[in-house]
Amino acid sequence: MRTSVVVHGVVLLAGSTFLPIAVATEAGAAQGGDEALWLVGLFLASVGAPFFALSASAPLLQAWYARSGNARAQDPYFLYRASNLGSFAALIAYPLAIEPVFGLAEQTRLWSAGYALAAGAVAACALTVLGGAHSRGPVAVTPEVAGTAPSLARRLAWVGLSAVPSGLLVAVTAHVTTDVAAIPLMWVLPLALYLLTFVITFRPLATWPERPLAAVQVAGTAVVLGAAMIGRLPFAADLPLSLGLCFVAGLVAHRAVYRLRPAPSRLTEFYLCTSLGGMLGGLFAALIAPRVFSTVAEYPILLVAALACRPGALVAPRFAAGAALRRLSVSLAGAAGLALLARFAPEAAPSVAAAIMMTILLLSWRAPRAAFGRAALFCALVLAMPLLSAQDVENRRSFFGVHRIETDPQGRFRLLAHGTTLHGAMRIREDDGRPALGRPEPTTYYATGHAIADVLEVARNAYGPLPRVSVVGLGAGSLACQARPGEAWTFYEIDPEVVRIASDPTRFRFLSACAPTARIVQGDARLTLARATEPTRVLIVDAFSSDAIPMHLLTGEALALYRDRLDAQGVLALHVSNQHFDLRPALARAAAEQGLTLLQRIDAIDEPIERRYRMRAMVVIATRDPAITREAERLGWTRVAPDLTRRPWTDDYANVLEAFLDLMRLRLGGGLAAGH
To answer: What is the pLDDT of residues 650-660, one digit of tens each?
Structure first.
């Protein structure tokens, strides 16, 4: 007991040396495009020690409580339920009450004070337990109380049952925030449901709805896998289904973990194994899967793995070489048959694959112990989804998400999409079926006459030819076809996969045909622009991932950086089209802090998007030049009056909830905002 107190005291003191917490700015930017590992190392070096100290306190406090002699100490696991309920409350409170009120510096000070209070509370608990143990004297521990050492199988069960819901949490979050809808704060919902599963399951219950939950798992997984083969589910069905399956899988797996809990004397070992499982599941979904799969295939794979968390599924039947060989032969024959079907009858392959999946699911429902015998075929089908799909789609995955290169149903345009956002559309065939040749026509948001293209016209009309143009965000390179001879263009792009796609003339010819000498700078624009030495005449910030715009590109410090990179006649424009935020009020307030006037323009599109893939954009110009203001107003731009009562967005403070509510008020008032 004394040893654990001393050791944990040293851990808490070591964590306090990193206070106040802050991200290590001297780390620089990720090198070699390996952003995921760079981020893991950055956070370990910046906040790893205090986070580890706090997370290690929870199981240790439970272990001390188990030895305290309290009447409830024989089952201290209720404290874990309370811990997760506190985490749930803090998660909900952060975006609703903390972030809108406090800046990062204030949050850091409050967090440091909270760390000190937590350390003091742990010290008080240690003194109480040590004092109680001293007054009681040595306590004889019977084998029943101490508990026997858990077997290797039980330890592995703790790890595996914890890994599946943890990995599924990461996979579902990636799926709903990119493939379903990039709604603000959407990441909160899967994590909140995940925490609630611990609150619900870590308690003694007379009855548990085992069969209803298993039925929901099987039916929901069948729908997800079938839809992945045949087509995408609509938003109204996909979102509740994904969140519901994540919640049910967590309930099933965490209830199984609770049932396998050891005696209190083995509590810390138990939590070590469950933490290891959670880490392994998260590492698989966050680091390994993006390197292995070209789509978010880990989501259906982990749904299948969640079926093996049902009671009885982890108890494998007696091994029989002949039976195993037969199952393997059937799996290989089925995979080969599907491959032939996809080759010679691509229209039928998705439906057949979906039917096979549902049949296997029903068999697994009737015989859960055979789940492992069928898992190989499941995974083979999931990984074969891109081949079995009837649609011509090429997926490119990076740290920033999945980029889809596909052809429209009429075969006239090649499209580049990321999540719910269309990043580019290039005509490949004319309406009469002939191949489209020559200089590509800029489409989507970048068509001639649209707001983004007219930013260039404002600058040209005010001061003549443009010596240099800089664009933050590359996409398919569509904007390059607004370039004119003699202009030097530079694109700043954070995603190396986007750079490869846009630079490949076999995919998109915007760059190669319209601006072959354009320079591409890969990296975060705030960092790469800060290193730029040559001033630019026009700077267009057009950076968004799916429907989310990086907030650090919209703060007062960011506007000051952009202004410093412009020449004396420079024009700054920001593309702020969004379905969920109205960013104009925040930008107008930040621009006022920098002495800039904000003007806006929203495109009006009458024809259907699918006709020529022209899309409405909301764009703002920030300037202090009267000539630019006059020319913009002549072309239909209007001023945005700043609300000086607002708190300006800075690198220390940004109120995402406020921008979300701004759009809600606009829509309720009958206003119209451009979106994707």
So the answer is: 888 888 888 88
